[in-house]
């Protein structure tokens, strides 16, 4: 069984919401869940997905933010949920997820995935003390001095980021960090990275993006925060719909789409040190042995896929036919088999 959530939005507020799907303005609504009525704020969310027939929403309820994802491009509807569970297994804090049925003003919109927001509540739940938090909102968040496509120098090192938590000085701190890693090399760079970056967390996050095959996960679709006690930067994954053998539009892609070192300036700097490459290799080896196996991941796939299967059958707002949904566990399992072999081969050259 998956829960049902009812959202009620008055006509005037609904018209306001639909005037501009690209607006980030919230409207008022009511959430009915477990027989309780709670006032909420609602808006559309996402990038290209805002123009889809089945839209995603962001709601604020009792001070907490939730993302209600239509997962429109993912025929399995489990890739985000599976990825975040995998990240949790390999020691990287990541959002909790829950599938549910959404009803808006009495109309059934089908199966959705609720994703926990990465914000103050996220850190409070995990007893993590964060003094700053930034979202990497586009591919300018590549830890380099220039734009990835135009190759022109950025006006500021903060391009590609949005600040969520922290004083305004934290924005300067992050900009200085990106600038410094690009200007230093050798021993001064090694010392600077050790005193400013949680390298173990970074390498585990990198491994997670590499194993799941998230091509967009290295220079955007992550959150970076500064851990208050250690003053080190750490990373949290975000938006893992284009993974496990499909890209962000749902197209089947090869298991070799993503290279072992990913694609950003910070990884390039880190991998210039033999000690870091050795540590990364240890992490990859450990994950291959304990977490990224068909035996370990199959029960997660079966549980997630099996739970929503009866509801997907009657979800007529979806882009994909039910037959495609049914074949997804096999596609993902095949991806795992192929990806393991590719990673083992690439590790020999690390």
TrEMBL record:
Molecular function in Gene Ontology: kinase activity
PANTHER family: INNER SPORE COAT PROTEIN H
InterPro entries recorded: Spore_coat_CotH_CotH2/3/7
UniProt keyword list: Kinase, Transferase
Organism: Paenibacillus alginolyticus
Protein name: CotH kinase family protein
Highest taxon above the source species: Bacteria
């Amino acid at each position: 069984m998956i829960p049902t959530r009812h959202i009620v939005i008055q006509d005037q507020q609904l018209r306001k919401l639909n005037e501009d799907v690209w607006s980030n303005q919230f409207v008022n609504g009511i959430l009915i869940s477990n027989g309780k009525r709670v006032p909420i704020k609602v808006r559309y969310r996402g990038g290209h997905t805002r123009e889809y027939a089945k839209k995603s929403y962001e709601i604020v309820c009792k001070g907490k933010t939730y993302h209600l994802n239509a997962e429109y491009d993912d025929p399995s509807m489990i890739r985000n949920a599976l990825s975040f569970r995998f990240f949790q297994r390999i020691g990287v804090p990541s959002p909790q997820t829950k599938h549910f049925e959404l009803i808006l003003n009495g109309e059934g919109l089908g199966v959705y995935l609720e994703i926990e927001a990465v914000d103050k509540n996220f850190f409070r739940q995990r007893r993590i003390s964060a003094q700053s938090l930034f979202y990497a909102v586009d591919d300018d968040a590549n830890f380099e001095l220039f734009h990835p496509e135009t190759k022109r120098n950025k006006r500021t090192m903060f391009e590609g980021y949005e600040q969520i938590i922290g004083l305004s000085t934290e924005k300067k701190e992050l900009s200085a960090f990106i600038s410094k890693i690009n200007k230093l090399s050798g021993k001064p760079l090694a010392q600077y990275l050790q005193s400013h970056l949680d390298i173990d967390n970074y390498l585990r996050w990198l491994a997670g993006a590499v194993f799941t095959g998230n091509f967009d996960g290295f220079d955007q679709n992550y959150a970076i925060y500064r851990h208050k006690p250690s003053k080190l930067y750490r990373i949290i994954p975000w938006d893992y719909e284009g993974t496990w053998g499909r890209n962000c539009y749902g197209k089947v892609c090869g298991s070799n789409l993503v290279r072992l070192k990913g694609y950003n300036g910070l990884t390039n700097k880190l991998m210039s040190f033999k000690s870091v490459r050795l540590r990364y290799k240890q992490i990859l080896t450990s994950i291959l042995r304990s977490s990224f196996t068909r035996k370990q991941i199959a029960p997660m796939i079966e549980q997630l896929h099996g739970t929503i299967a009866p509801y997907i059958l009657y979800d007529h707002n979806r882009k994909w036919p039910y037959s495609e949904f049914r074949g997804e566990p096999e596609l993902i399992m095949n991806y795992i088999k192929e990806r393991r072999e590719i990673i083992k081969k690439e590790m020999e050259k690390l």
